[in-house]
């Protein structure tokens, strides 16, 4: 016999296992909060901007061809900024306890489409160190590009600064807790239906009809201890009368 599940059965199962669903959701929220606030190291972000322009000449005008040449150089510059030739000097000047390969993972270099402005973004557990690395990377690159490329077309547009109350960019506790709540809710609902599916005990007359494929002819009501005691007293009283 094919078993069908109605919407009423779904709501009945959810209501029956509501406490389990709530408990799992709360546990997931608690674990996410503890991990986000006390386990994961907060990461701060700082950025500096450099401008790639044409080498200074006596005529302060730029043609479209000059700008196109500058844009083509940006991809090369992006690679040079994160190269060991630059980062090794940054490490030495800031006396950082790291390697160029490890420092590369903290630095992101990008520019907007058709823009000559390059953003150097640094993420670090120490907000002041993130600012120092961003500014020092821009300064070292500006100085070294003159030797590496034989050009002087880089200038610092906006240096990185440390705010009064820097906030970490990650983790995001509220987002993590929201995701954990959804996951906990899904686990709770899934476990509720799993337990209901594995529960093969007979509880209602409908279960008997479905299991035996026979109609129910009668039901035996539950008898409480008080009703049973009253029945015994009534039987004893009848015997005395006889």
Name its key features.
single chain, 242 residues, alpha+beta, four-stranded antiparallel beta sheet, 9 helices, 4 strands, 57% helix, 11% strand
Briefly note the structural class of the backbone: alpha+beta
How many H/I helices?
A: 9
Radius of gyration from the CA trace?
A: 36 Å
Query: How far do the termini sit from each other?
Result: 55 Å
Mean pLDDT: 84
Which range does the strand content fall in? 5-15%
Family: Belongs to the CpsC/CapA family.
Main location: membrane
Domain Polysaccharide chain length determinant N-terminal: 3-94
Keywords: Cell membrane, Membrane, Transmembrane, Transmembrane helix
Overview of this structure, please?
The protein is an alpha+beta fold. The chain has nine helices and four strands. It has helices at 7-16, 18-39, 64-81, 84-94, 100-104, 127-148, 173-198, 205-212, 225-241, and strands spanning 44-52, 107-111, 117-124, 154-158. It has a four-stranded antiparallel sheet with strand order 2-3-1-4. A hairpin with a 5-residue loop joins strand 2 (107-111) and strand 3. Helix 1 (7-16) crosses helix 7 (173-198). The radius of gyration is 36 Å and the shape is rod-shaped. 17% of the residues are buried. The mean pLDDT is 84.
